[in-house]
């Protein structure tokens, strides 16, 4: 990713002072040249891990952005669909992956029912407050067929002695201050989606959830694997 092609500091500031939807509309043309795009190494590692759990016919990329997750779905699924609420991001994704189907919708109210074998999401969990996760997970649960799989990578919290620990803490504090004094809010936090809470919410939504290690160049990631039961344990 070339910084020359990425957004300027002024553009990032304008984006950060916008709503999440409008901010990503603005960022879309240069998003693939920012550090916010999921690294190819994570996409490859996810593909390798999921390849052993298939086969999958239809795949869904939730909060697809510019379509990075399509690299994973294209390798594993016969048909793929991406959903996002940013029209700008969907335009970029459509240009890059014309073979896929694209739907504009809020991930907290997904318009699908029982049609997908595999759902993935990359880099989007920080955009959902803990109180919003149940709606997200319940929507994905509905979108999957019985026995379908929901998978996404999550980073483990770095140790307090690391620069990353204080960097993510500082970012989250800055975002909380920004959202306390500026409207509309821009929801993006690194520390609100820790693994125990995420797994608990997935279980409440009806999934059988676990994690596997997903190494990436020394940074510790876990791949969350949430399976919808063939025979639901609760009414959906």
UniProtKB/TrEMBL annotation:
GO annotation (BP), single: methylation
Q: Does the keyword Repeat apply?
A: no
Q: What are the Methyltransferase domain coordinates in residue numbering? A: 60-148
Any one GO molecular function term: methyltransferase activity
Q: Pfam families in the record, alphabetically?
A: Methyltransf_25 (PF13649)
Q: Which InterPro entries match?
A: Methyltransf_25, SAM-dependent_MTases_sf
Keywords of the record: Methyltransferase, Transferase
The protein's name is Methyltransferase domain-containing protein
Q: Which organism is it from?
A: Asanoa ishikariensis
């Amino acid at each position: 990713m070339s910084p020359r092609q990425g957004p300027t500091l002024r553009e990032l500031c304008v984006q950060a002072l916008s709503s999440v939807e409008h901010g990503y509309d603005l960022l879309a043309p240069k998003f693939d040249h920012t550090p916010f795009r999921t690294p190819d190494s994570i996409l490859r590692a996810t593909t390798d891990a999921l390849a052993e759990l298939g086969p999958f016919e239809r795949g869904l990329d939730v909060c697809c952005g510019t379509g990075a997750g399509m690299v994973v779905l294209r390798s594993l699924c016969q048909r793929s669909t991406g959903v996002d609420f940013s029209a700008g991001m969907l335009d970029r994704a459509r240009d890059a992956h014309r073979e896929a189907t694209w739907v504009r919708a809020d991930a907290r109210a997904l318009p699908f029912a029982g049609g997908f074998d595999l759902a993935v999401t990359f880099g989007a969990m920080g955009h959902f407050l803990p109180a919003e996760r149940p709606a997200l997970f319940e929507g994905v649960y509905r979108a999957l067929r019985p026995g379908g799989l929901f998978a996404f990578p999550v980073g483990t919290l770095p140790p307090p002695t690391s620069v990353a620990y204080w960097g993510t803490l500082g970012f989250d504090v800055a975002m909380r201050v920004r959202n306390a004094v500026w409207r509309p809010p821009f929801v993006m936090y690194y520390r609100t989606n820790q693994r125990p809470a995420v797994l608990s919410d997935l279980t409440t939504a009806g999934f059988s959830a676990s994690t596997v290690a997903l190494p990436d160049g020394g940074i510790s990631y876990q791949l969350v694997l949430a399976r919808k039961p063939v025979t639901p344990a609760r009414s959906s």
